[in-house]
Every structure is written in structure tokens, then in C-alpha cells.
Amino acid sequence: EVLELYSGGENKRKRKRQIAADLKRSCGTMSAGAYEEVDDEDLQVLGTTDCLRISDPADTKRIYLASRRMVEWAIKGGIEALLVDGNFSFTPTPSLPKKLAFQLYTVRVCTRGTSFLLMAALLPSKTAKEYSKLLESLAELFQDFNHSLSGVRIVSDWENGIIKAIRDTVPMMSHEGCLFHALKCTNHKLSHFGLKIAGKSYPVIKEWTNRVRASFFLPRCFFKSAKILEVPVTPIHSQYAACKNFIDYFKDEWMTHPEPMTCKFMVESHRTSNLVESWHRWMMPKYSTKMYFGKNITPFL
């Protein structure tokens, strides 16, 4: 039902295939490597006895779906983190009189070194009120299974609505911000100030912007030695003002209020909702080989 209604967007086929594959894998009907083989018709074979609609059936604006088996697996395996994220679009469904705005919102659970879909929802808007209703249903779902979410880590993007909803609705959970989303925001601002283009002409700016992007994955004690908060060029340089303006933005947005959400040094897993740390796991064996043994890690990074 969620997939049928949420049919808009450039990547609709990819999203539908991946969610369908997640659901079918949850039911034990397919392997993880068969994502590309999933077609729309395959959605019809999904079992319905295991699926819970935990929203009001009469509410056509909000649809929350969860898998009973996935909740049981999450509790049995031990919840390491819940990853929440959404994708907003319009649904050009022929049966509807006009295009309706929906956000497809998913909750994934991390346990025992893997992650799987726990809950999928259609939301009519991106507001704290809507997110709160969803989180209340999620908490009630686990209560029905006599399981508390107290102390469980929940990772979200930096949208004000979801931040407020998490802190108001499930304050017993440990809230963290997704560093991948923070990196995307920073990349957009670097482009906004023209620093990505400037980096092509000035290597010193390119090197500095690379350090800025890496800063989200570094402990704060390295900020000074890496000169992340220092303008990399002299005041007479044509890009001095752009660099200074970006640093002011970076200090205001990322060095002040989000601090409790980004303090993740020594947390080794699930720091981002796309599990980008898998790249680090790929990198470390290469660094430990004789080719790099004894060399300074800075040029390698």
C-alpha cells in the first residue's frame, strides 16, 4: 500500500525495488543480492499476515506499516541503533483527483552487524507533529512486545522537525545526528560560496575544503592542528571573503548547537544512516599492509 501510493520521484523504481527487497528478505523469500531482480509484480507475493498497519485504517493521510517478525528479530538480536530518514515527493497516482504530497519515511534497525527495514510510513507533511505521531506509534509498538526503547540510539538527519519530535516524544532514547547528512549540508555551502570551483584553481583552498569535509569524522582535538577553522589564504586573496564567510557559517551551524548530536568519537558503528563507515573498514586493512606500514597517515588520508 505504501509503495503503491508513493509512486513519484526520479528514483521511484530504485526505492520501490529496495524496499520490496527489504520486505521480502525479512520474510525469508529472497537473498540480499537479488535487489535488481525485484519487479512491481513481486510486491504482490509479500505475505500480509506478518504485516501490521499500526496507524488508523480510516486515516488515508497517514499509513504506518511494520513487520511483526522484524520487531521480534530486533528485540532478540539487540537493538544497536534505529536509523530514521525520509524522502518527500508528490504522488501522480491516476486514481487520485490531484497530486498529493507524501513523505516516505523509514525506520531501520541495526543489530549484529547488519541493518534491516523495521517500519515504513507515508506522512502528509514534514512537521514535528507528524514525526511525533510516528514516533509515538513506534514506541507503542515496542511496548506491545514488552520492550523498552530507553537508552537506544536513534540516528536522524538535521531537520528541525525530527529533532524536536525525537526530543519531545521519545526523550528516553539517545539522539544522534547523521554525519553523512551534515557532510551534504557542508558540501552545499561550499558550492554556495564558490569554494568548490575555487579549489580547482587554488590547491591550498582545495586541500582546506577537504579537511573541512573530513572534520565531521575527527575528534575535536584535531581541529586546531588541522587548521579547519582558519582561513587558508591571506586577506588580499580574492577568495578570502568566501572562506571567511564559510567559516562563520560552519561555526554557527556545526560548532555550537548540534554538539551533543555530533559527539561520537570512539563510537565505532552506525554513525551515519547510510553506514558510510564501511569505507573505513575497507580502508584499514590497506593501511595496515606493508605498502603503508610506517608512513604518516596524513598523506594517505
TrEMBL record:
Domain MULE transposase: 102-184
Pfam families: MULE
Protein name: MULE transposase domain-containing protein
Native source species: Pristionchus fissidentatus
